[in-house]
Structure formats: C-alpha cells, structure tokens
Amino acid sequence: MLVTIHSVQTHFAGALHVPIEINISRGIKFHLIGMPPKKANECRNRVYTVLKSLRWHWPGQRITINIKPEIVPHSSMDWDVPIAIGILASSGQISNRALDQYLFVGTMGLDGAIAPVEDPFNAIELARALGKKAIFLNCDKAWVPHLNLSNAIKIIRVSTFEALVAMLQGERALVALKKRKHPTVENGIHPSGCFSEVAGQMPLKKALEVAVAGGHHLWVEGAPGQGKSILLKRLPSILPPTNTTNEALVKKMQYSMISNTAELNFERPFQWVAPQDGGSEVFGPNREFSRLLQESFTKAEEISKLPLHLLPKKRSKIPKVVKALGGVCVVDELLKQKENVRVGLLKELDHYHFQVFAALNPCPCGHFGTSTNCRCSAILLENHRSKMTGALNDRFDIKVHNASLGDIDPLPEQSITIRSRIELAWQRQMNRQGKQNAQLQDEEILRTGCFSIPVLVKINRESRLRGYSYRGRKQLMSICLTLMDLEGQNEVLESTVDQALLLRWQQRSEPLKLKKTQWVPPKVKV
Q1: What DSSP element (H or E) covers 36?
Q2: Minimal CA–CA distance to 69: which of 117, 39, 35, 104?
Q3: Packing angle between helix 494-504 and helix 470-487, nearest 10 degrees?
Q4: Which residues make beta-bridge pairs with 136?
Q5: Cα distance between residue 189 and residue 200, in whole Å
Q6: Closest CA to 360 of 382, 329, 385
Q7: Using an 8 Å Cβ cutoff, are 336 and 385 in contact?
C-alpha cells in the first residue's frame, strides 16, 4: 500500500515541504531514496529498533521509501517519526485516513523518545502555510512563548513515539500547546546586563540612546578601560521592537539561526565582530547569497525562495552581516580590523539593513590625548589614523570622541527606563513613516513636515560651515527627527539642531597633534 506522510526540513532561510512516500509490496529489502546512504542506514536502524521495542510488526516485505524534493545536505533531517508512521500506516497497522491533515517531524532515540527539533518556529509556519490541521513535534519549553499559537493549527508537543501513535489511534486526546507569556526580566535586569552597571559615560549613554532610537550608525573613540565595550555589550537591553514592515522576516531569520534557547530573549539580532574575524566570517564566502538575502529583506519577501545551492553548508558558516539583519552589529577595534572588513562595511553602512556600532582607540597604544603618556611614534599615529578613510568616516551618523569615564551619576538610569523612552520614540516613527529616521531619504525627511523654514536655513548654514557632505546633511536632519521623537515634540526646534550637531561631531578634548622627531645627522668616521 502506498502512503504519503508530510514532513518538513528546516534550514537557515526557512523550511521545505518534504512529502515522504512509503510503499510496502511483495519482495524483500529496505530501500530509502533521497537521503545520503550513511544517514539512510542510521535512520532505518533507529526506526526498526523503535518499532520492535514497542512490539509493532516489522513488515517482512519490500519497503520502499522515497523522499521527493531536492534536499539541503547541511540541514537536520528529522524524518524518523514520519517514516515510522508511514511504515505502520502502509502495512495497515494504524489507520491512514487523517494522515494527510498532519505534519510530522522528529528524530527518535532507540527507546522511542523524540528529540526536540532545532527550529520549531519555521516548521510550524510551514505547516500553517500548507493548511495542515496539526503538527506533531517536540520542542524545548523556552520556544513556547515565541511560537505563533493561533487557532488555525494545533501544535501537538509529543516526547515519545508511543504517545504519538496513541493520539493518532484516538486513545489519547490531541492536546495543543496553549499561549504563554513571554519570560519577564527579573528586577528589570536584561540577560545582557544593564546600563546602570556601568559607571559614568553619560555622554556616550545619551549618544547610544539616540542612535538606537533612530536606527543610526555610531562610532566611539576612547582609551582602553573606559567602558566602551561594556556598554556596547549591553545594547540588547535597550533595543526597540523590530520594524513592522519586516517583522515576520526578521523573526523568521532570527529563530531559524538560534540553536541556544537562552538567546531567545533577544528581540533583535545582535552580533559582535572581533578584530580576529576575517572577511569570510563577517560577509561570507558567497557575496551573491548576502546580496539576494538583503534584497529580500528590503522588499520583505519570502526568503525561502532563495536558491538552495547558495545556502551556507552549516549554520555556523552564516555570515555575521546576515545574522545582524534587522538588528545591531558591533565592530570592535574598527581600525584594527582587516582591510577587506573595513572596505566591506562601506556598502553595509549605506543600506541601513542593520545598525553598525564601532569602537576604536585614538592610537595603537590607546592613550593618545589622555593623562597616560602615549608611546606611539608619529609614523604609527599617521598609519593608524589613515585607516579611517573619509568615505568610512562620512557614513557614521553619530561620532563620540575621547569617551572618558567622566562624572559618575549617583543614581544611574536602568536600561528598562531608557528602553521605555526609546520604544515611545520608535512608535512615533512607525506611526509617522513606517520605518526609523535613519532609513529615510532626503525627500522623505522633508515630507514629514517637521522642519520649519528657519530651521532648514540653520541646518544648511551649519552644514556649509562644517563642510558636511550631502550624506552628512541628511544624517544631521535624521538625528534632529530622532531627538524630536525622544522629547515627544512635533516640530524640530533650533535648539534640537544644536543638540544634533554635538552628536554628529563631538570634538576631542585636544586636537590631534603628531609627535615631531628631531633630525640628528649621522656620525661620519674620519
């Protein structure tokens, strides 16, 4: 008897529908088509052992199993459960009347325990798109608050194959998962930490608040040990919700890439680029895949339509710029990064598919302009500063120079307080234009109607005096909108422009001066 069981194969860009055909006919041997030989043999042995241990009859006939679509070789193949169900249905040991309405996914142990799937989110979304009545799987409890538990489909969480068969035979009720609240943050402290744990750095905290609220790029320059990296690592505690236009896409990508359930608390993707990371780790070996994915992200299209041959072979090989889409990418020690990383960032900074926060030292030793004596020569200083090209410098909206510890606030604000202001400002942007201020073009900024004629005159005058480029002028106007939203106003004031100018370019406490070395004539032997 020929039986078709529906399963799913999750991968980075979504999920594939996998119809599995099982036929039992006269003859002998077991044939599994569409799976690598090694994995096919492992799957056959697991299914055989489970059925025999649960006292089901193993058909002594010719068993042919055909897995129909093109398979992504690097994905997990959780097909033990659908194959075992298909063998029982094809041999007539259980009824196959309602099997077309269900979707099965899962790998079994030899005792019949069903292992949790790595990516239940995409599996459930595919079952919903296919119009299935229910999906049977096992998943970690931490996933439950993040799943779409609507009434359109029943999500049956089963941990053993014996319980699953009992449900199919009507011996047990089909108990679907119920909605649960998202895990709350204890005492207002986010898993990534809280801004109140970092002493001082009041100007940098304010700059980070403005950058996160408006989606701006930011780079901060300061000596080591001042708290730059510590604050940047706490950015997830103040990130706003995802953009409404790409919310489903961002969540689908994020959940499909997460293997550690502890990371599910992050609402937006967060990536950290260390100086030792190479260009292939940051941008991936295949730039065509990153380009297509970013186009899909911009148009909010279905990313599962991407060519399968372009998908990374392992989840660990997914580029960091792809993982950061819709979120934040922190580039530590920007000027110590490899040249191909700095050059590759130029294009990413233009599109605002994600925010870039960069940290760097003022010199190779890190103590230029501080109370500690700088040990760098003039040549080292010049080589260090030359890596910050004009094109790279011009693409950062907010610049904080010489970030020092500063005055210590006796009652520092917690991240939950800062995030509440950011969410209000974010909501104003979504209601007004549907995206964050940094993503607006020049004509879209003017279309908001928040700039009066005197304010525009001041912005043009200051831009000419400071030598801002066309991009720099647009960045200044978008920062003005973000400050306006944080203050809850409906119009940009001249005082708002003054605040934006400070954020656009905060000067160092002292100008950059290269060391002068005295020339000494060589000694000549007579």
Answers
A1: none
A2: 35
A3: 120
A4: 104, 156
A5: 19
A6: 385
A7: no
Query: Among candidates 61, 83, 56, 62, which has minimal Cα distance to 169?
Result: 56
φ, ψ at 251 (rounded to 5°):
-65, -40
Q: Please state whether 326 falls in left (phi above 0), alpha (psi between -120 and 50) or beta.
A: left
Q: Choose the CATH number for 186-427 among 3.50.50.60, 3.40.50.620, 3.40.50.300, 3.40.640.10.
A: 3.40.50.300
Whether the domain at 2-168 and the domain at 186-427 fall into the same CATH topology:
no
3-class secondary-structure state, position 453: helix
Pairing of strands 134-137, 154-157: parallel
- Nearest Cα neighbor of 9 from 69, 99, 92, 89 is 69
Q: Distance of CA 392 to CAs 347, 354, 374, 522, Å?
A: 10, 16, 25, 41
Tens digit of pLDDT per residue, the chain (526 long)?
A: 889 999 988 776 677 888 999 999 888 888 888 888 888 889 999 999 999 999 999 988 899 999 876 666 555 678 999 999 999 999 989 988 889 999 999 999 999 999 998 888 888 888 888 899 999 999 888 777 777 777 778 889 999 999 999 999 888 887 777 765 554 444 456 777 888 888 778 888 999 999 999 999 999 988 888 888 889 999 988 998 876 445 555 555 555 555 555 455 546 788 899 988 888 888 877 666 667 766 666 554 555 566 666 666 566 667 888 778 888 999 999 988 888 888 888 888 988 888 999 998 888 888 887 778 888 888 888 888 888 888 998 999 999 886 566 666 667 888 899 999 999 999 999 999 988 999 999 999 999 999 999 999 999 999 999 989 999 999 999 999 999 999 999 999 999 999 999 998 654 433 334 344 444 445 555 4
Helices 415-432 and 470-487 cross at an angle (nearest 10°) of 110
Which CATH code is given to the segment(s) 2-168? 3.30.230.10
Locus of tokens 């990534």: 192
**Cβ–Cβ under 8 Å, residues 204 and 412:** no
Q: How many degrees, rounded to 5, is the angle at CA 296 between CA 292 and CA 300?
A: 175
Unique residue bearing structure tokens 């928040």: 450
Q: Sign of dihedral through CA atoms 222, 227, 229, 231?
A: negative
- CA angle 448/452/453 to nearest 5° reads 125
Q: Strand, helix or coil at 271?
A: strand
Domain boundaries defined on the chain: 2-168, 186-427
Token pair, residue 493, equals 């004031």
Q: Indicate the residue type of 392.
A: L
